[in-house]
Write a structure and sequence with these properties.
It is built from 30 helices and 23 strands. The protein is an alpha/beta fold. It is globular, with a radius of gyration of 30 Å.
Length: 744
């Protein structure tokens, strides 16, 4: 037996040696699927005499494809003419040879997201569509969904022709497709879709590739969408030698179009298919695997399998119920420090890179960044930027910096066209040059009407509104709480609305981060009721001045659970185990929503090799709203024999086969949607400030100010109102001051 086959376990070897006919390899987390696949390819070439030319192996990432290619070449030698590629790369190769059959030249361009956005912007301009109401990102998101589901512009019009917003989508979609064809270009979705169209349109081409690719292998099959499904099935129709590898328990990208039915119904699609389950895990301890199974077993839409290991049982899952999110972060940072220093094991300790904190939403990272920074623990945010380095946070902080200091040209340049105000790069460059010649700040140059008179009407209006807003807030910053100023800037600048109008997953994530920034402000205001904008900006500047760490550095990894798929760490922390956060309340809105969240929990648990911590907070402030929480349903599903630390109130219901806490655990009572509430309060607060301009205050009126308390109006002249408060007289600007009439 070849050495590489001898190193496989019994089930891995069974999969590697089965070469004829359809094969489904159910490869659980950490079960050695890549080794199995590469050994199978090597066996086909060396033992079965298959020409590498006749093998196609497709996966999702360039990294995965390179790793598989390198491993195969290490076994059978380099220079093989074999396709081990991503789906997009394979389709691109095919289209380069046959694009003319679809009306394209072989030298067609492939448009990246930036090219797509520019094209849609031009189309919106030509169609006179307001990109503030209908953003390019909104159109591109809808177009991508249409292509994934093979919906043409004509079909889209027939389906949604009566809705005004959808009519706009149809018009842009139709023009977009026309422009792509005119420019001899395809986008990334087209690479997949047009290959399938090519196979459907030309039987000779399909037969050519069916004859060539006699053995087809697909990695991460649970993540395939309908177009990818059609692509591999059309190629496999002639011989049926298709091997798919995946794990239905790790299907966590349905929101991106992944269809779990592809793996669950493989045996229906290919009758007589052989199924091999790789259930031996080489990553985690026994207790971690048992904990993962106790959760995922609650899913109904899954293949029957259970991971096991020859390794020791190891430590139980440690659970901590903290008082709030700050105590939760402090606990995790403390545990990392103690283990790193060897306090538990008695040895020299561990590397910081052995630790990972896996959270459900990006907004959660902020408290961990702060807790680790306070302890001088190095960290890096994988799959994203540090919280304070994210674009939306930097943008809004620049608005606040400019209010504090209107001479801050760096801040102004960043936000003058965020959101769009009709000020292009060349215009801004001319204004900067003029400011330098005049030896004045760029803001002062923008205030000069003789300068702005030469600009377009749209630019003049945008600059006037911008400078007026900054001037107003700058004049009132001492009379406003930082949180009120923040709400006012978000709304009056149009920044929040611009993100809301995009209606994309990315824009929703940015809004979540902006709402979470309110929690930062509230934390500081709770510590100091008289906090000024200058003091707040100084504290944030010091906190945010922590260096980012390269991937190769010895640093704790912070990342979302989605980003963690495919990775592993000796020590894993899963915070935020609360109903409403994980699983999120939106999971209950779809029949399969809770099952996908449960699969995400399973992915998180199985990232841990040696120890796993799960934590929750009794009271959590998220997106600026504080709520008492209930422990996650997933915590209640964990076998209590596998958990140590704080107890989770639960008992076993033998009749229903699930954990519950004394009442029927169907859908729990749903609280306020925190993110929606935070956005509403931001807009309501800003509207309330603006409304004071319409109030008819007169001397003697009793008013209430959130920072100064109750006071009496002394006079009201124009936009200025004088009020006597307990700590002295204040001059406030109507339309800016968050004033309300005192009750009674």
């Amino acid at each position: 037996m070849r050495d590489y086959l001898a190193k496989l376990n019994e089930k891995q070897r069974e999969a590697a040696l089965h070469t004829e006919g359809p094969l489904l390899i159910l490869a659980g987390a950490g079960s050695g699927k890549t080794s199995t696949m590469t050994c199978r390819i090597a066996y086909l070439i060396e033992e079965k005499g298959v020409n590498p030319w006749n093998i196609l192996a497709v996966t999702f990432t360039n990294k995965a494809a390179k790793e598989m290619r390198d491993r195969v070449e290490a076994l059978v030698g380099e220079g093989l003419n074999m396709w081990i590629l991503t789906f997009h790369s394979a389709c691109l190769r095919i289209l380069r040879r046959h694009a003319e059959l679809l009306g394209y030249g072989r030298d067609f361009a492939v448009y990246d997201p930036t090219d797509q956005k520019t094209l849609v912007k031009n189309i919106c301009r030509d169609l006179q569509i307001d990109t503030k109401k209908f953003t390019p990102a909104y159109f591109l998101g809808n177009i991508s969904k249409c292509k994934e589901n093979r919906v043409t512009p004509a079909q889209y019009e027939r389906e949604y022709g009566s809705d005004f917003r959808e009519q706009m989508v149809q018009k842009v979609y139709a023009a977009y497709e026309k422009q792509l064809k005119k420019n001899n270009a395809m986008d990334f979705d087209d690479l997949l879709l047009n290959t399938v169209r090519l196979f459907e349109a030309d039987e000779e081409v399909l037969l050519q590739y069916q004859h060539r690719f006699r053995y087809i292998m697909v990695d991460e099959y649970q993540d395939t969408n309908q177009i990818q499904y059609a692509f591999v099935h059309m190629l496999a129709q002639e011989r049926g030698n298709i091997c798919v590898v995946g794990d239905d328990d790790q299907c966590i990208y349905q929101w991106r179009g992944a269809d779990i039915r592809n793996i669950l119904e493989f045996e229906k699609d290919f009758p007589g298919a052989k199924v091999v389950k790789l259930e031996q895990n080489y990553r985690s301890t026994g207790n971690i695997l048992a904990a993962a199974h106790s959760v995922i077993a609650c899913n109904s839409a899954r293949k029957d399998k259970k991971l096991w290991t020859d390794a020791e049982e190891g430590s139980k899952v440690t659970y901590c119920r903290a008082m709030d999110e700050r105590e939760e972060a402090s606990y995790i940072a403390g545990e990392i420090g103690r283990i790193h220093d060897g306090a538990y094991s008695g040895d020299a300790g561990k590397r910081y890179s052995d630790f990972a904190v896996l959270y459900r939403t990006n907004a959660q990272s902020r408290t961990f960044e702060e807790a680790l920074s306070r302890r001088n623990v190095p960290y890096r945010v994988l799959g994203g930027l540090r919280y304070y380095d994210r674009k939306e946070i930097k943008d809004i902080m620049c608005y606040m910096r400019l209010v504090q200091n209107r001479a801050d040209d760096l801040a102004l340049v960043r936000i003058i066209n965020e959101p769009k105000r009709g000020i292009g790069g060349k215009t801004l460059e001319k204004l900067q040059t003029l400011a330098a010649v005049r030896s004045e700040s760029l803001f002062d140059t923008l205030l000069d009407q003789e300068v702005t008179a030469s600009l377009s009407a749209k630019a003049r209006e945008g600059i006037a509104a911008f400078t007026e807003m900054i001037t107003d807030f700058a004049g009132q910053q001492e009379n406003m709480r930082v949180s009120d100023l923040y709400d006012g800037l978000l709304v009056r600048s149009g920044y929040l609305k611009a993100l809301e109008d995009q209606r994309t997953v990315e824009s929703e994530s940015r809004i979540e981060n902006l709402m979470e920034f309110k929690s930062v402000i509230y934390d500081y205001e709770n510590e100091d009721a008289n906090l000024t904008l200058a003091e707040f900006m100084e504290r944030i500047a010091l906190l945010a001045d922590v260096d980012n760490h390269d991937a190769g550095e010895d640093a704790v990894v912070l990342m979302t659970l989605h980003s963690a798929k495919g990775l592993e760490f000796p020590f894993v922390f899963m915070p935020g185990m609360e109903d409403g956060l994980f699983p999120g309340w939106r999971a209950f809105d779809r029949p399969d929503g809770l099952e996908e969240e449960r699969r995400l929990c399973y992915v998180g648990i199985t990232r841990a090799k040696e120890r796993l911590w799960m934590t929750s907070a009794e009271c959590r402030t998220l997106y600026g709203r504080t709520d008492y929480t209930r422990e996650s349903q997933f915590m209640r599903e964990l076998d209590p024999k596998l958990v140590e630390g704080d107890g989770v109130m639960k008992k076993r219901d033998r009749t229903e086969g699930q954990f519950r806490d004394g009442i029927r655990s169907a859908r729990p009572a749903r609280p306020f949607d925190q993110l929606k509430y935070a956005r509403q309060m931001t807009e309501r607060n800003a509207a309330a400030m603006a409304k004071t301009a319409e109030e008819n205050f007169v001397a003697g009126d009793r008013v209430v100010h959130p920072k100064f308390g109750e006071g009496e109006v002394l006079s009201c002249e124009g936009k200025i109102i004088r009020v006597a408060f307990a700590d002295g007289e204040k001059k406030l600007a109507l339309g800016m001051a968050p004033l309300s009439r005192a009750e009674g």
